Amino acid sequence: MTVGKIVGGELTGTIEWTEKFLSQYPILEKLKTTRVIDKVKSKGRFTRYKSQADDMDDNSLFIRRATSLKVLHAGATWLLDQIVASTPLSRALSQTFDRYYGFQKLLSLAYFKTIEPDKAMYLYEDFASSTRLPFHRPLSISSITKFLQHIDEDRIDSFLKKLNEYCIEEEEKSQENVYYALDSTSISTCSDALDYAEWGHNKDGDNLKQINVVMLVNQRTGCPLYYRHYAGATPDVSTVNHLLKEYARMGINRRAIIVADKGYGSVKNIHKLYQDNQSFILNMKTNFSICKNLIVNNLSYLLDDCSYNRKLEQNVMTEEIYWSYPGNFNKDTKRCRHEKGRMYVHIYLDHNIRNDADDLFRARIAELLDKQKAGIEPLTQDEEEFVSTYVTKDSKGRNVINNVKKTEYMLCKGIRILLSDIIKDPVEASRAYTERNEVEESFRKLKDFTGAKRLHVSSSKTLPGKIFVHFLSCSILCMLRHRIHTAEAKGIQLPYDSIPKIMSSLSNITQTVFPEGGYFSEIVGKKKELYEGLDIPLPEPETNIEYEEDSAVESEE
């Protein structure tokens, strides 16, 4: 069978393939293929020849191996590789899971949950067959289950200790304040056999048992530092004491400032933070007694134009007080000797939110008075109570607003209160809390982007490993979102406005893999613009791609 000819009719030179042969191996059309003398095999008067194809970077490919070429989706995983590369997360993973390609397998599974969040783990094998991944060989669901069962609490603890060790090394290079976002979520499960699965306040409104997960994230880098899953019936406010005890065991940076939302604000938790010398910024519920008193005493100043802050575009005031707390860590009784710690109370008033609340109140009153006047349909009990509370009669018998009651109703509208033991600048405190909200959004995507809204696992033996994979996926998303926000802060407008669109567009970039390496398809237009906007180097040809042997990956001893 004739497959081609040498251009010029010589014994060596460029090969011109037949159309029939190219239809069988279309990849050859993209390569400049030549016939050359094989100097190694040529001996004496015997001359041997070989055919080779040269790509743009002079990497050679023997034509007899052309049939083994593979084309993989590669652009999205290249992006994730660059996000993870040289981070404390990557270093800790490679140090802790250094046997049987554990590091590569974990990253590959995490990439799968990041790129294909809606797909169950049993579909990983098909995904891995067509996608460039750190671990090249596709794994069956039985292999994945066996692998995850080896990831126990001891190994996760070792990983977290390494992670915090490397994070502290990076954080100590900066003289700025270090902020750790604290947040939690609930993961629903249909299984009745899982440890920690209990009925609790399900944040998704599911009528299912749940497992809660708490997480700490460095707000500057987006790198996660700690996570723990615990009983689903445990409220957020009850987790702070345990977290503070974990600080010493895991080697978490004590210099970092915890930033937490309303779910963690309580008198006992503030006591514990002072007792443990742990700095904090807490967003407090406005019905907290000390907060409500400060609002009442300072409302007129907050509403005054002189309290307006141009940087925040809100009215702001800060009051310095002293917080009294029990000196004994294990006793919160009045008999215990109390100590006092300085506290900064930052109060912010957003006029847009307050005006919207005022408009809604006004519209609601008008709606109910019109309904009452029409008399077609009687007011419900709740509607009657609302009208009787906020509407009264004037001297002429006309309906008018009870301004005392309305003032009580409007007292906390549009107001946010941040407490801190160390940050006295309201602008910095607000910035730190805003950054924390960005991390919370990323953490919330744990369920939306990684498919963890439902935990598809029925064995408690597999549970730690499965949650660990979701944690890694969420961690990568946090770091990616941080990279996106950094670009936006520089005024860079990215061509895609969401992570799913980014993943989808970049997955169309392919890598052609052959025994000696692989090269990527062209990177142009919006895809090139996206890489450059995120400060990601464009994909480069890879050489010496090593494929794992079956015996080395199927089991762990």
General description of the model:
The protein has 557 residues and is of the alpha+beta class. Helix content is 40%, strand content 21%. The protein has 18 helices and 20 strands. The strands form four sheets. It has a nine-stranded mixed sheet with strand order 9-8-7-10-11-17-14-13-12, with helices on both faces. A hairpin with a 5-residue loop joins strand 8 and strand 9. The longest helix has 27 residues, at 463-489. The radius of gyration is 31 Å and the shape is elongated.
Strand content: 15-25%
Estimate percent helicity.
25-40%
Major sheet details? 9 strands, mixed
Tally of separate helices: 18
Number of strands: 20
Main attributes of the structure:
single chain, 20 strands, alpha+beta, 557 residues, 18 helices, 40% helix, elongated
Put the structure in a nutshell.
40% of the residues lie in helices and 21% in strands. It is an alpha+beta fold and 557 residues long.
Q: Strands, helices and their partners?
A:
Elements: E1 4-6, E2 13-17, H1 19-24, E3 32-37, E4 49-54, E5 60-62, E6 70-73, H2 75-84, H3 88-96, H4 102-115, H5 124-129, H6 141-148, H7 153-171, E7 179-189, E8 209-218, E9 224-231, H8 240-250, E10 257-260, H9 267-275, E11 280-284, H10 289-302, E12 308-309, E13 314-326, E14 338-349, H11 351-374, H12 381-390, E15 391-393, E16 399-401, H13 403-410, E17 415-420, H14 426-450, H15 463-489, H16 499-507, E18 510-514, E19 517-520, H17 525-533, E20 542-543, H18 550-553
Parallel strand pairs: 7-10, 10-11
Antiparallel strand pairs: 1-2, 2-3, 3-4, 4-5, 6-18, 7-8, 8-9, 11-17, 12-13, 13-14, 14-17, 15-16, 18-19, 19-20
